[in-house]
Amino acid sequence: MKREALLLNLVCIIAALAFVGLAVFNALTSFSFLTTDNLFVTLVCLLMALLFIVNPLLYLKDEGRLPIPFLKRDALPAQTAAAGRALPSSSPQSPSSPPLLDAKGRAVPPDVKSMVANMKQKQPTP
């Protein structure tokens, strides 16, 4: 799976660079850049570059390799610890059981935990 994601990101980065290069080429080779046609072609090229670069940037953000400005790293563990303390002591999971995680490995919110606990309770057979 890692190789496919790497290949996809590489293709997206190459396509984004190609579109940026095309926009620069259009700006350098046109005699009158501020015409409607030249501005339209440049805008379309830059928009396509943006669309292709979003996927690799989101992948890097999910992997934790992309630093996000104005986001404090210390605030995230404190929030998760505070959320863990906010749970009542009579939680449906025992302390020795693993925490309930979603498909991406993140801890599920307390309301989802309570819904799962209600679903796991034995229902009376009619």
Structural commentary:
With 126 residues, this protein is mainly alpha-helical. The protein contains four helices and no strands. The longest helix has 28 residues, at 2-29. The model is unreliable at 86-91 (pLDDT under 50).
Strand content: under 5%
Radius of gyration: 24 Å
Characterize the biggest β-sheet: none
Number of helices: 4
Q: Which outline best applies? A: elongated
Number of strands: 0
| Overall helicity | 55-70%
SSE sequence, one letter per element: HHHH
Low-confidence segments:
86-91
What number is the mean pLDDT?
Answer: 81
Q: Decide which structural class fits the backbone.
A: mainly alpha
State the distance separating the first and last CA atoms: 46 Å
Keywords:
4 helices; 126 residues; mainly alpha
Précis, in short:
This protein is an all-alpha fold and 126 residues long. The protein has helices at residues 2-29, 36-63, 75-86, 110-120.
What is the topological layout?
Layout: H1 2-29, H2 36-63, H3 75-86, H4 110-120
